[in-house]
Structures are given as structure tokens and as C-alpha cells.
Amino acid sequence: MPAKPKDRPRTVALRRPQPSGRTVIVAAMALFLVVVLASPLQTYLSRRDAVAASQTRQRQLNDHVAQLQHDSDQWNDPAYVERQARARLQFIRPGDTLYTVLNADGTPRTQTSNINGPSRSGHQPSWNFNLWTSVTDADNAK
To answer: What is residue 3's DSSP assignment?
Structure first.
């Protein structure tokens, strides 16, 4: 039986809706606002980030100033100055006896800890050890 023209599937052509004048104007205004406001918004955001970075740096500097003030206050204390002189320079009071512990090779043994705890740079030899090392180095250079 031949197919009837009515039985054929109908093809429906879909049309895109045409934008109205109002839609075009709203889209153009939105695009215009994006273009106009992009630069000030970028400037605002960059300045806000700069202010936040400056505030963070200011807090770090204030902490550093507080630490330096604390160190300065300690150096104004005669007992602290005396402890540092004894530990760093091996100063002693009259009547005291200074003992220097030597390593197996005869070099002075460095302190394992400072009065205030271990130093940041590790062990620091005493000034007289540095002096003696420079004398022996100069003698060996001849």
C-alpha cells in the first residue's frame, strides 16, 4: 500500500526568536556598563590589595619594633649585661676561676648553649678562641 501524503512526518522549521528593540538596548547598555566600570573596578581591587599588604607589613614592622624594644630594655639591665659578658666574652669576677674545656686535639670546646638558649647561627666560638685561631693560622701561613 502506497504511503499517503498525510502519513509523512512533518518537518517543523524552528525559527530563532528575533530580538526586540528593547532587548538590544538593554544588552548594549549592559555591555557599555561593563566596559565603563571594568577599569575603576580593577583599580579599586588593586588598591584594596595594596592596602591589605601595607597593613600586613605594618603589623610585621610593629612586631619587630616591639622585639627590638624588648632587647633594648634587656641591655639596660646590668645583670643581663653581666650575664652576656660572662657567656660571650668569658669575663669573670675577681676571685673566680675560669676553666676552659679542651677537645681531644687541644682546641677549646665551644659552648653548646648560650645563656638565652641556643643561638640562631649555631655555635659561636669565644673571642679568645677566634684570636688564638687567627694567630695559629698566621703562623702556619709563613
So the answer is: P
